[in-house]
Amino acid sequence: MKRILIIGATSTIANACARIWASEGAEFFLVARNNEKLEQTALDLQIRGATKITLHILEATDVAAHSKMVESCIETLHQVDIALIAHGTLPNQKGCEQSVEVTLQELANNATSVIALLTLIANQFEKQRCGTLAVISSVAGDRGRPSNYIYGTAKAAVSTYCEGLRARLFKVGVHVMTIKPGFVNTPMTKGLPLPAALVAQPEKVAAQITNGIDKKINTLYTPSFWGLIMLIIRSVPQSVFKRMNL
Question: How far apart are CA 113 and CA 111, in angstroms?
């Protein structure tokens, strides 16, 4: 039986992953900021076969509250087999450009809160010397594009942090997986003018994530074709790239 911590448990991708694990009889410690949505998620997972579910309300940017959450998780699960960090927001780039306050808030939502949580959780995993830390980053972090470079900056920070953390924890038997989704059909992307052929369904993404965790993949582009797309984008010379409208 897998013991699983999910932060951002009401997000679409995290919920889709949890449904897969629930069908396998997993035990959950679910963390989110909206109590009503969290209770709905828990009820759904119970119906799908989850063994036990504990709920914890947390505003992820409240760094001072992180320690209590982690302590409560360990008291409940005793050991964490999988920790999935999936919270975040999709900022309005133009809004960020006009406001230092908005920019810093979005960096807190998508970068510093994630890194703060990872710091605490990584230390617990180092003590238990086993388990997998899976973190949702984004293809947006692979290169700074004018259309979303605040979001990209946050995700690049998370991806770089995870790369270093992976090398550190590998030596004690802990795996760290960086998840880089492309466009996914979620409430966060609703209404955006995205090419339909590149928009994945969350169930497909979740299947690739859970499979990637089982296989201990280091960096997972999902759907997988995003690995090739981002390779091409990273290969464009800066002299050309700065003239492109991406």
Answer: 6
